[in-house]
């Protein structure tokens, strides 16, 4: 079996490659790795459902996901974008203290996500002002584009 240390090093260097986290101090990144869970999803599986409560933040380690959203005038949720390895999602419900605002659906079998819970997310973001400012700004932009798109 692979050692805990090897696993730690692997996720540490992966997280370092995630643009959002590239400037985080070493000890902070190491702490995130300690608190991570890895979730596996098959093609078509919902990782997040619009309207549900959510307390987790996700980083894609393998595979691709589709972001869809209910839209006025359409019977089915519409695809907004797709995300891949190194992309992240689920920050909006945590930051806006709201329910999930879109669906996230695995596009491939064995899609893997690193999952950070609310407490660890707050520690990661809250103590690092630039990261916090960046995400808050981004989340505001998402709300604006939701309105433009007539999200239901
Ligand atoms: C969008 N509108 C909404 C994406 C991921 C990270 C960032 C964009 Cl910083 P949640 C559903 C999640 C939501 C976002 C993600 O879906 N999302 C969007 C949109 O246009 N959500 N409302 N695009 S991909 C993305 C920016 O992460 O967070 O917790 O769950 O509401």
Shape: globular
Q: Are there runs of 5+ residues with pLDDT below 50, and where?
A: none
Which cofactor or ligand species appear?
Answer: ligand WNU
How many separate helices?
Answer: 5
The rounded Rg comes to 16 Å
Distance between the termini: 48 Å
Structural description of this entry:
This protein has 152 residues and is of the alpha+beta class. It has five helices and eight strands. The strands form two sheets. Strands 1-8-3-6 form a four-stranded antiparallel beta sheet. Bound molecules: ligand WNU. Ligand WNU binds at residues 48, 54, 67, 80-81, 83, 88-93, 100-102, 104, 138, 142, 145-146.
Give a topology summary.
Layout: H1 4-17, H2 26-35, E1 37-41, E2 46-48, E3 56-62, E4 65-69, E5 78-83, E6 88-89, H3 91-96, E7 103-106, E8 111-117, H4 118-126, H5 129-148
Antiparallel strand pairs: 1-8, 2-7, 3-6, 3-8, 4-5, 4-7
Helix pairs in contact: 1-2
Ligand WNU is lined by residues 48, 54, 67, 80-81, 83, 88-93, 100-102, 104, 138, 142, 145-146.
Outline of the structure:
The protein is an alpha+beta fold and 152 residues long. It has helices at 4-17, 26-35, 91-96, 118-126, 129-148, and strands spanning 37-41, 46-48, 56-62, 65-69, 78-83, 88-89, 103-106, 111-117.
Features:
8 strands, 152 residues, alpha+beta, 5 helices, binds ligand WNU, 26% strand
């Amino acid at each position: 079996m692979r050692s805990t240390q090897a696993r730690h090093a692997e996720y540490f260097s992966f997280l370092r490659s995630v643009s959002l986290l590239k400037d985080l101090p070493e000890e902070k990144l190491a702490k995130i790795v300690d608190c991570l869970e890895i979730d596996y999803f098959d093609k078509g599986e919902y990782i997040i459902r619009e309207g549900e409560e959510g307390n987790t933040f996700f980083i894609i380690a393998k595979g691709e996901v589709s972001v869809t959203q209910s839209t006025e005038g359409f019977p089915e949720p519409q695809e907004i974008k797709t995300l891949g390895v190194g992309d992240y999602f689920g920050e909006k419900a945590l930051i806006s203290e709201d329910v999930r605002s879109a669906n996230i659906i695995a596009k491939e079998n064995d899609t893997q996500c690193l999952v950070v819970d609310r407490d660890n997310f707050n520690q990661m973001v809250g103590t690092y002002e630039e990261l916090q400012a960046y995400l808050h700004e981004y989340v505001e932009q998402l709300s604006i584009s939701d309105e433009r798109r007539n999200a239901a």
